Amino acid sequence: MIVISGIVTGVLLSPLLFVLLLAAGILLVVLQKRKAALWLLGSSTALLLLLSLAVVSDSVLRPLERKWPAFPASPPTVDAIVVLGGGVRQGAADEPAGGSLTEESRARVLYAAILSRRLGVPVIVSGGETWAERFGRSEAEVGAAMLVSLGVPAANIIQEGKSRTTRENAAETAKIIRGRRMSRVALVTSAVHMPRAMRAFAWEGISCVPAPTNYRSRAGYPGLIDFLPSFRSLQDSFDAFREYCGIFLYALRG
Fold first, then answer.
1. Each residue of 94-147: pLDDT tens digit?
2. I need a labelling partner for 17 at 20 to 30 A (CA). Which of 26, 79, 165, 209 fits?
3. 33 in helix, strand or coil?
4. What kind and span of H or E run contains 185?
5. Separation in Å, CA 118 to CA 18, 73, 91, 155, 206
6. What pLDDT shows up at residue 221?
7. Bridge partner list, 20
8. What's 84's DSSP letter?
9. CA distance 146 to 101
10. Nearest-angstrom CA–CA distance, 192 and 61
């Protein structure tokens, strides 16, 4: 099921979708369906252009990122910090933990380290090997190595290296939380991912204080540059739609 979900996401919520639409348009030309081909290619190009604009990506990111407030300045009482994985890459043999975190994961782990200094509680790093990232090390291992390099004592780090999805993050982490008789945790993940993560942990009956990080949408009025296409804005748009799809599937599953 995990592999199927990953393949579907990789096709429908990535630029590969537009490659398939282009191929379909070419096929229609070959079949002499010129009007249908022009409509398909034209609409696909227009959609691709729109999703590449920062003004559009910001508009779809913002409702997700503002769903939950930032972690309060006056820290509430929590028993631990839970940081969710956001991806890991194959690393060199001599690289710490044998791999490197993606930009998304680094932002989360860095914020968890900052909160660790403020709160003085253990950090639970959640993340295993996904279907696309199998190289012998869990994301929890790589994340724990980064936390240690940032000054978090190894004795204060708990690894959860079995989960591959957000639902599994919550389920596997909940076992640790209950086993250690913890009552409330600070949940660290990207702001765009926080709505889905909070729902997953709520299903497990875990009380969480949201601690979102790595905000991408910008406040204020858009400038001229926000109307120029960019690959980063295209990625942001796809990531936002991935979260909307995930939330929709969660709602269907109850």
1. 454 456 888 999 999 999 999 999 999 999 999 987 644 555 678 999 999 999
2. 165
3. coil
4. strand 184-190
5. 45, 10, 31, 17, 22
6. 73
7. none
8. E
9. 9
10. 7
User: What are φ and ψ of residue 111, in 5° steps?
Assistant: -65, -35
Q: 106 near 120, Cβ under 8 Å?
A: no
CA-to-CA separations, 16 to 4, 10, 20, 61, 207, in angstroms, rounded:
16, 7, 6, 21, 38
Amino acid making up residue 23: A
Q: Spell out the domains of the chain, with CATH numbers in brackets.
A: 2-65+230-253 (no CATH), 80-213 (3.40.50.620)
First to last CA, the chain: 18
Q: How many CB atoms lie within 10 A of CB 230?
A: 14
Question: Which tokens is 145 given?
Answer: 């190595």
- Residue 83: phi and psi, rounded to 5, are -115, 125
Residue-level pLDDT at 14: 64
DSSP state of 90: E
